[in-house]
Design goal:
0% strand, mainly alpha, extended
Length: 269
């Protein structure tokens, strides 16, 4: 009973604190959106829509919730000291067991383990296909975004907000789909590992980790001299671009844009 009390207190606090964090985050997002919408409304008569005073006024309305959240964080530290939980040696997770055993996976099915071997191979193919699909969607979004940015007609310079929203509408679907596929792949992999683990144990029983031979490209990529050369080349390229940007006037343009963002958009000026 004494052991269960600290765990129960910590668990209840964790749920309450998590829910309260979501509420505070939602309040903050609400106030930011309220500032943005009111600052871009056609009937807004103020000379500068985003000012320090307006930001302070908006955020002060949720200051009580924020300070209560800070107090809850402090309470959490106190509870963790008042209600300690003895740390027991935890059980090795299924993911860790799978990661260790899969290194012993033979190239062909051992005698009498053909069914388990076929199950493992099929599940791993599904996991790999889902990951490839997710990264392919991200690649499509990246390529489409680069092409979109390279077309001057997409940026008429008369409606910055509209331009940004159009860009997001064009690129976001592929990004969102990629995140969905990655999430699905992660969930499937978790349950697949749990169901595969008994088969992996049977197939790899008594076997030692297999030294996988690297391909010629793999040996080059993992070579320390190659990695050092890549780092040096990237550093030189970065310095060259910085010097080029300073000489052609882009550094000044970036500085002016940063000043305008801080003084007009965020409201620091």
């Amino acid at each position: 009973m004494k052991e269960r009390t600290p765990k129960l207190v910590r668990s209840c606090y964790g749920w309450i604190f998590g829910a309260f964090t979501l509420v505070v985050g939602a309040l903050f997002i609400w106030k930011v959106l309220e500032l943005y919408i009111s600052g871009t409304a056609p009937d807004y008569t103020g000379s500068t829509p985003f000012t320090r005073e307006r930001v302070v006024e908006a955020l002060s309305q949720i200051s009580l919730a924020f300070w209560l959240w800070i107090a809850a964080v402090i309470v959490g530290f106190v509870l963790w000291e008042v209600f300690p939980v003895s740390q027991k040696r935890g059980k090795v997770s299924d993911d860790l067991q799978y990661a260790r055993l899969i290194k012993r996976m033979p190239a062909t099915a051992p005698e009498g383990r053909e069914e388990e071997f076929a199950l493992i191979v099929s599940r791993r193919k599904v996991i790999a296909a889902l990951k490839i699909a997710a990264w392919s969607l991200f690649g499509v979004a990246a390529i489409y975004g680069i092409v979109y940015l390279a077309i001057p007609a997409n940026f008429p310079k008369d409606d910055v907000t509209g331009e940004v929203l159009n860009f997001v509408k064009c690129v976001f679907p592929a990004i969102f789909a990629g995140f969905l596929v990655i999430a699905g792949a992660g969930i499937y992999e978790k349950y697949a590992i749990r169901s595969m683990l008994p088969s992996v144990k049977k197939v790899t029983f008594g076997l030692k980790p297999i030294e996988r031979q690297k391909t010629a490209i793999g040996r080059i990529v993992t070579d320390a001299r190659f990695l050092t050369g890549v780092r040096i080349a990237l550093a030189v390229l970065a310095v060259a671009f910085i010097i080029w940007g300073s000489l052609n006037g882009n550094a000044r343009a970036v500085m002016i844009k940063a000043i305008n963002i801080c003084t007009e958009c965020i409201g620091l000026g």
